[in-house]
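haha ok so turns out i had the wrong file open the whole time. this is the CORRECT one, sorry everyone. sequence first:
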Amino acid sequence: MILSLRNSMTYYIPESLLDEIEQLKEHGKFDEAIRVVNTILARDPTNEDALLQIADIQYRRGEIGKADKAVDFLNTKKKNDPLGLYIKGILEMEKNNRKEARTHLQKAINLTKGDNHEIIRCYGLCEYRYGNREKGLQYLNTAFEMNSRDAEVVYNLIQLYILEHDYTKATEIIQFFKTHHAELKVVDKDIQRYDKKIALFEKFLRTPNLLDIHNM
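then structure:
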């Protein structure tokens, strides 16, 4: 998900190369993807989009530290870039540095004037995990209002309502997921992954005496 803002940003990698890189990443061929990106960096070592691709590849393979270095270099070179701040926020969340993540994501929100649902989604999760549960849920609902067909937003919203023991709202959003299943959009993950998780949520919600257990 680290490059899920791609469609809303300007890129400076030839489309043919960009498609090749994306295909390699989708198939988990990260070393090959890095080799392709390095052909760009060999000509232009400060190419911002190539650096973002390196960060994305390293993030997907679980190399958070290496991804962090690429993003730090980019953010030093180009301050107040919303995409760089967004990615830095995600990486800090992965490291459980929630305070730092909030700072970066809040800056990204301000720079985009609160107009990007993906940044809003991540900020909401960050606030929730930081302990500001009501605020986090509000931001997740805002992201849902902005783009209710993003499967990750729908999944996160169900997740938080279950954590809040608001099983009525969780069930309502699950029904929304089912009703609009064909319209849902995914990034990096296939829809079957969400189907399995929603099925687990439903199984949990069907647990006998669930409400009585949580009201004890």
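The CA atoms of residues 63 and 144 lie 30 Å apart.
again sry for the mixup
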